[in-house]
Design goal:
The chain is of the alpha+beta class. The chain has a domain at 108-225: 2-Layer Sandwich (Alpha-Beta Plaits), CATH 3.30.70.1880. The protein is 55% helix and 20% strand. The strands form 2 sheets. A 5-stranded antiparallel sheet has the order 3-2-7-1-8. The chain is rod-shaped and about 175 Å long. InterPro entries: DUF881 (IPR010273). It comes from Pallidibacillus pasinlerensis.
Length: 234
């Protein structure tokens, strides 16, 4: 009977012990699984954080590259603007030079100054004192250029930077072509400015009148001057 009771006790002990071992094993397994999951989540978080850092660094580099390219583009745009201004200025200079050389037809407002020989008075002395000479014409031409005339012609003969005017007996020679009086000096430019320059007190007009020259001045709304054709022009 006693042996039978011991067997029962041992059975109960082994049962409890087995349960405890099984419970402990299960608990340990669950904890191990939990630790494994936590480790994986931690590793995943670290990977994501590293990827985020990489992306931020890459974004920073791209922004720096963008700023550099924008700076370069801005400098190129400024350079292009400066080049365009320079080209425009050069184009204006070329056009002005062509105008001075008579290589381009021009038209615009301006004035016409007519110089004619005075009526000879035998009692007054030499007849040359009543004739228009090259210095009279030159004085008018120089005053017009100084006052901003863009183009000038004498009796339709357009002047250039290489033009010359000289007396040849009773006529005046302009660039090898002879013209008798009266001499019509046409000038394209601001008409009011040119009129004031010619009519200024003690200026060109007064000098011409004092030299017995018949003087006439007219404002013109439109004066047309053709191109001067050179040897190589068609």
């Amino acid at each position: 009977m006693k042996l039978k009771k011991n067997r029962i006790v041992f059975a109960l002990v082994f049962l409890v012990l087995g349960f405890m071992i099984s419970y402990s094993y299960q608990l340990t397994k669950n904890n191990a699984n939990q630790v494994t999951i936590n480790d994986r989540e931690w590793e995943r978080n670290i990977q994501l954080r590293n990827q985020l850092n990489d992306l931020e660094e890459k974004n920073t580099r791209l922004q720096e590259e963008l700023f550099e390219k924008q700076k370069t583009l801005f400098e190129l745009e400024e350079s292009i603007v400066e080049d365009e201004k320079l080209l425009a200025h050069l184009a204006e200079e070329v056009e002005e030079l062509r105008m001075v050389l008579g290589k381009v037809a021009v038209q615009g407002e301006g004035i016409e100054v007519t110089l004619d020989d005075g009526t000879f008075d035998p009692k007054a002395g030499d007849i040359n004192s009543f004739l228009v000479h090259e210095h009279h014409v030159l004085n008018v031409v120089n005053e017009l250029y100084i006052s901003g005339a863009e183009a000038i012609a004498i009796n339709g003969k357009r002047l250039t930077s290489n033009s010359y005017i000289e007396c040849t007996g009773p006529v005046i020679t302009v660039d090898g072509e002879q013209f008798p009086a009266p001499f019509v000096i046409s000038a394209i430019g601001d008409a009011d400015t040119l009129v004031k320059a010619i009519n200024i007190q003690g200026g060109v007009k007064d000098q011409l009148v004092n030299d017995n020259i018949v003087f006439k001045l007219e404002k013109k709304d439109k004066i047309v001057m053709k191109t001067i054709l050179g040897k190589n022009d068609s």
